[in-house]
């Protein structure tokens, strides 16, 4: 399956496609826009739209299935999916590394892309604040000595010896050049799962920390962590924790802020600050989660007016009575 | 650049995106639906739609750029493109192999996917009729003794030693099991280009053979060559040559039929036979070339009526006066 994500235990494939889920392997296998080959969709008028091909190439007319991928159920209900699956890799390795600065996380990524190349299947990062939360709330063990930043690198390939050699050459390079100050390697399933848990269970740890303000942002990778630092500085002691983690390889940051309880004043300090900051660097205020109900009014931070107008025309055409997942994704007209 | 195709010397990127071009590396890097990150489009009313992000992930509203990819200029004019480029591979190898049957071509592909895995960047095939045409009309040299089928395999990777070892192990396997009866390997640029020419210059050789009836078909890979055989048997001596080649790794066949000159009776023997045959196996009658002017009436062989109706509504919404590349892609209503 070309898609994998933290919610794999509870999510459904229809929802994954309807929200254009990204997740941890997008770096390797690309987005659902490329891997979904066909869809069956029920339209607002009850008719079934059959675009359920399993061909890799089909240029007969417009690619209608794209309308429904990522439209959050507002244009039709996805009832069947055909998806292109790569071969299951014969071998998987995970390296968990500590870096002294975010600049080193980025430089390690650059070296990694060159030396691991086609076997790289994930490049995730978390800051030390995330690590403290999974240690405190979930009693997970940090296998490294404390570092300001952690990186999880996964390789997946067809030849165990080759992958191991690539990974060892890479580790030698980043350790000897002091880009990485601590590291551990996993080749067996149990340890691989334990390392992934440090990254995948951050969301769960956050829910134990109090009320969570969640942001899912795309930014040019060199700007990614500046947003966390600026938000942390801005909020000061009014927030309990301001943490950053995410799919660095895709330029996707999960910025999360916790407080003992929901506070409107804190929200006012966060928004529109985070959105304006993101818009300034041409980022996306909703990278992989979708706008849903809470963020639909914020669409203009990432999309021009002409685009939103065209989206509203599409909605009116496909769902003239507004019965499909109403009040989601698109802004109410009066708000702008 | 994630896209490469035979027409690289003359095509333009706007046209590539507007026709959702596939080409020889789709197998490795996926379709433009996944690699195009952003577009700037001029709409029918003259307004500029700016969806020119360079973020890998952006789920703020509907993905409008998908409307214009592959719509052949009938919904808007693409004026700028942002595209995700993988690192340039450090090392490239090409193997050119001969097989005794199409079944062996398929079995070789299965072995290849397992043993070359992530370094496989192209799996192309041509039949002996194609080889004879490039020899006759372009004076190209066949480096192998005559075989009924030829396969071109390309690897691209980050470690020359590893890729060579993978390729050698694979070749040993397919030769020792007699899946492959002849083969040659290229690692230097000149020989690599010479081998690729055998595949990429088939179109050119065909134009020297007379009038060419061209079909660009997607089919389940195990059915791919049956269409060539059945067409050849059906047409008998009324055709000069019936040849098959294409992107086997993507299930994409180029079926070409030549005659000394255009004959309506020959066309009547080919169509709708080829389209009906393709529809019977749920294939696509236009895999990577688009319907254009000549094939727009044939859309119903690959798309249901509800889908075409929705496409026509999209066209009416985005181009109410029908001024964008008129008479293309969508069927005229009266014809069905």
Automatic annotation (TrEMBL), chains A, B:
Catalysed reactions, as listed in the record: (R)-malate + A = oxaloacetate + AH2
Record carries keyword Membrane: no
Cofactor: FAD
InterPro entries in UniProt: FAD-bd_oxidored_4_C, FAD-bd_PCMH, FAD-bd_PCMH-like_sf, FAD-bd_PCMH_sub2, FAD-linked_Oxase-like_C, FAD-oxidored/transferase_4, Oxid_FAD_bind_N, Vanillyl_alc_oxidase_C-sub2
Keyword Flavoprotein included in the entry's annotation: yes
GO molecular function: (R)-2-hydroxyglutarate dehydrogenase activity; FAD binding
Cellular component annotations (GO), alphabetically ordered: mitochondrion
Database matches in Gene3D superfamilies: 3.30.465.10, 3.30.70.2190, 3.30.70.2740, Vanillyl-alcohol Oxidase, Chain A, domain 4
SUPFAM superfamilies per record: FAD-binding/transporter-associated domain-like, FAD-linked oxidases, C-terminal domain
Enzyme class of the recorded protein, top EC level: oxidoreductase
Assigned keywords, A-Z: FAD, Flavoprotein, Oxidoreductase
EC number: 1.1.99.39
Domain FAD-binding PCMH-type: 1-88
Family: Belongs to the FAD-binding oxidoreductase/transferase type 4 family.
Job description of the protein: Catalyzes the oxidation of D-2-hydroxyglutarate (D-2-HG) to alpha-ketoglutarate. Also catalyzes the oxidation of other D-2-hydroxyacids, such as D-malate (D-MAL) and D-lactate (D-LAC). Exhibits high activities towards D-2-HG and D-MAL but a very weak activity towards D-LAC.
Protein name, per record: D-2-hydroxyglutarate dehydrogenase, mitochondrial
Taxonomic source organism: Geotrypetes seraphini (Gaboon caecilian)
């Amino acid at each position: 399956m070309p898609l994998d994500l933290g919610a794999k235990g509870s999510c459904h494939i229809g929802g994954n496609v309807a929200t254009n889920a990204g997740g941890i392997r997008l770096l390797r296998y690309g987005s659902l826009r490329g891997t979904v080959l066909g869809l069956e969709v029920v339209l607002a008028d009850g008719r079934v739209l059959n675009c359920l091909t399993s061909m890799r190439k089909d240029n007969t007319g417009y690619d209608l299935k794209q309308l429904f991928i990522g439209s959050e159920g507002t244009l039709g209900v996805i009832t069947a999916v055909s998806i292109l699956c790569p071969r299951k890799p014969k071998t998987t390795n995970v390296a968990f590394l500590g870096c002294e600065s975010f600049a080193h996380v980025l430089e390690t990524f650059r070296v990694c892309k060159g030396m691991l190349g086609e076997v790289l299947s994930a490049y995730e990062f978390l800051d030390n604040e995330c690590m403290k939360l999974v240690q405190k709330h979930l009693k997970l063990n940090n296998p490294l000595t404390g570092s300001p930043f952690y990186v999880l690198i996964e390789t997946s390939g067809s030849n165990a010896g080759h992958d191991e050699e690539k990974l060892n050459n890479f580790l030698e390079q980043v350790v000897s050049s002091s880009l990485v100050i601590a590291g551990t390697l996993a080749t067996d399933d149990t340890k691989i799962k334990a390392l992934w848990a440090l990254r995948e269970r951050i969301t769960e740890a956050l829910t134990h920390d109090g009320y969570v303000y969640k942001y899912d942002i795309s930014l040019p990778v060199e700007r990614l962590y500046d947003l966390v630092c600026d938000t942390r500085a801005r909020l000061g002691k009014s927030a309990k924790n301001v943490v950053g983690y995410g799919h660095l390889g895709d330029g996707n940051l999960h910025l999360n802020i916790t407080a003992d309880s929901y506070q409107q004043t804190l929200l006012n300090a966060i928004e529109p600050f985070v959105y304006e900051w993101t818009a300034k660097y041409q980022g996306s205020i909703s990278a992989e989660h979708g706008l849903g109900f809470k963020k639909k009014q914020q669409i203009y931070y990432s999309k021009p007016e002409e685009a939103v107008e065209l989206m509203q025309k599409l909605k009116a055409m496909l769902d003239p009575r507004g019965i499909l997942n109403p009040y989601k994704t698109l802004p109410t007209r009066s708000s702008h």
